[in-house]
User: What shape does this take?
Amino acid sequence: MRHVKEADPEVHGHMQAELERQKNVLNMIPSENYVSPAVLEACGSVLMNKYSEGYPFKRYYQGNRHVDEIEKLAIDRAKKLFGAEHANVQPLSGSPANAAVFLAFLKPGDKFLGLDLACGGHLTHGSSVNFSGKIYQQVSYGVDKETELLDYDKIREIALQEKPKMIISGLTAYPRQIDFRKFQDIAEEVGAIHLADISHIAGLVASGVIPGPFPFTDIVSTTTHKTLRGPRGGLIMCKEKYAKDIDKAVFPGMQGGPHNNNTAGKAIAFQEALKPEFKEYSSQIVRNAKALADSLMKEGIKLVTNGTDNHLLLIDLRPFGIGLGREVAVALEEAGICGNANSVPYDESTPFKPSGLRLGTPVLTTRGMKEKEMEQVGKWIADVIKDYKNDELKRIINLEIGALCQLYPFY
Ligand SMILES: *Cc1c(COP(=O)(O)O)cnc(C)c1O
Assistant: This one.
């Protein structure tokens, strides 16, 4: 970063400090990952100088012959990676990707069915503070209060009664598999479009480590920067019969020019994900999450659904007190572990003071850690939860974590 250093020491200082933070913390935010140096280079490249409204070989600007080839590569690789009929790699991120899907199939005021934010859904699945809940009419489904699992009979019942135009499946804080086939069947029964939003689990789905929504689902949206380990960005895939609707909704419906630097980053990340090593990486993410879950439960920590099938787990802190999520998250950061406070299903507290903590294993797995390290990490987390005001304890754990990070360097 010698040019940044010369041109702007102030920004450079913060960038350098952030690099050190990423190296020296156990990053357990399940929506984050560390990209390869190749993806980093592509995203910081001259491709960002180019405007290319339109689609490959059909642009509104001259000078796109190289960008066309790069976008074409990204599209072809996405289709191959997921077994999709059509791919649009232009969405700037996950939320604009979902906004484009709404724009393609719903009119303002139309009804759709989405997972309640408090039960593990995303803002764009109908939260009242988001465009999806403001412009469209959300009807929500939740998880069962006892099992904390999705109840497909109940979802079908709501769908039959409400007749939504679209049904969204997908998660941000649900630690179990989703039966996308059941969602598609329900959508077909009530004549709705089915959008599967696989933002969190895309890498695991691409690797076939957990069941995904291909090839039967109408529309699939995702971010590219979570388990898929690509650059910040979005991606929409669909059946061929919806291809025109989706492309028109992304451009000119939602966006202007695509971010070509990130398109190149996506193409590289998809190529990385097509390699056998990525399949091994993805299954290690899940094995690590299970090992972490076991370690925590052995220490007496309660997990939502008592475990995990994917890359994330949700700790229910209510046995220690209602609304403790943020305090515990801050304590864990002091000890060297970065996670995030999150609501648990049927939380008695508010989203600003939630009673849960969400953790994931993608970054630690990227750094090469395995089950043995997860067992130790689980013990540290449990120790902090049980005594989160103990500064001496946090100081000692922070030293131990610093030593562990040294053993698993990245960048
Ligand atoms: C992260 C996420 C998004 C939004 O992605 P951004 O890139 O943050 O806009 C959408 N849907 C789900 C399910 C997500 O997990």
About this structure: The chain has two domains: 41-273, 279-407. The CA atoms of residues 128 and 134 lie 6 Å apart. The mean pLDDT is 97.
